[in-house]
Amino acid sequence: MAMPPEPWPTGTTVEVEPLVRRVLAPNPSPYTYTGTQTYIVGNAGDVAVIDPGPNEEAHIEAILAGIGDAKLSAIMCTHTHRDHSPAAAPLSERTGAPVVGCAPLTLDDNGPRADAPFDKTYAPDRVLVDGEAMTGTGWTLRALHTPGHTSNHLCFALEESGALFTGDHVMGWSTSVVVPPDGDMGDYMTSLERLGAREDRVYYPAHGEPVEKPRQLVRGMLGHRRQRENQILRLLGEAARAVSGFIPAMYKGLDERLIPAAEMSVTAHLIDLERRGLVRRNGEIWQTS
After folding, report:
1. Is residue 258 in a domain?
2. Shortest CA distance to 153 belongs to which of 84, 225, 208?
3. How far is C-alpha 95 from the chain's CA centre?
4. For the chain, how far is it from start to end, CA to CA, in angstroms?
5. Per-residue model confidence as pLDDT tens digits over 4-13
6. What is the pLDDT of residues 26-81, one digit of tens each?
7. Would you state the torsion angle of the CA atoms of residues 185, 188, 189, 192, taken in this order, to the nearest 10 degrees?
8. Start and end of every Metallo-beta-lactamase domain (predicted)?
């Protein structure tokens, strides 16, 4: 999806529903769309911040301005890519709020990356397990473990309004990038199916606009991934090939900056198909089993 026309509301607190406001970080890119969206949940008493974003002073100041006189009781992270969690530590230092949410994750990876690398500074005060909740004045945020984009990815359900904060797991503007070895396509599909069985009213992703028809989008995303699987199997039926050999046929007219992301996505599919016994590899070359 093409970028929307500027100006974007970077650094501005925008109310998206009575219990939820968002602040857009100044980090637009082909992978982050207009930037990372930090959410402030709650109005009076105490509030929570979801995905504090990059460690950018202007963004931290914008979050503090959005919080205003309320007490920040929790800084919650969906996962630890560097566009999501690095502001957690400085925000905690300035407010005294604990960092809670996903587990820490450090992945050594010297290969090409199709997404922001992991934040190795992330050190939560409390890790939320699946089904565990944080509560405050008029709000309850319950964690859902949704591995796939990353193994430590969480979504947070706002029980009072039926909203789900989906991080990078589901976004309206783009499919999520699944980057092995930590990203896992099989886990990603299972997590999508889990969300598809829920009845959330709206999704608030970390990038892009709210998803007003979430179950419809999830069905479409599952169908899209299955279509990609079928493309891969069809192409391997024609000839064995390296990962790069899939891209021209599967991603026609792709922006060259996004080729590494496409190659990682194909690799994630191939690894999943290999695990299921449908394909095998010989060095860098893949073929049907």
Report:
1. yes
2. 84
3. 25
4. 35
5. 999 999 999 9
6. 999 988 999 999 999 998 889 999 999 999 999 999 999 999 999 999 999 999 99
7. -160
8. 35-207
Q: Round to whole Å and give the CA distance between 146 and 76.
A: 15
How far is Cα 10 from Cα 18, in angstroms, rounded to an integer?
20
* Domain final position from 157, 181, 212: 212
- The span from the CA of 230 to the CA of 235, in Å, is 9
Asked if residues 261 and 114 have their Cβ atoms less than 8 Å apart, the reply is: yes
- Amino acid present at 26: P
Length of the chain: 289
Q: What is the pTM of this model?
A: 0.94
> Is residue 89 located within the same domain as residue 132?
yes
Q: What is the pLDDT of residues 228-256, one digit of tens each?
A: 999 999 999 999 999 999 999 999 988 89
Nearest to 150 by CA among 53, 264, 286: 264
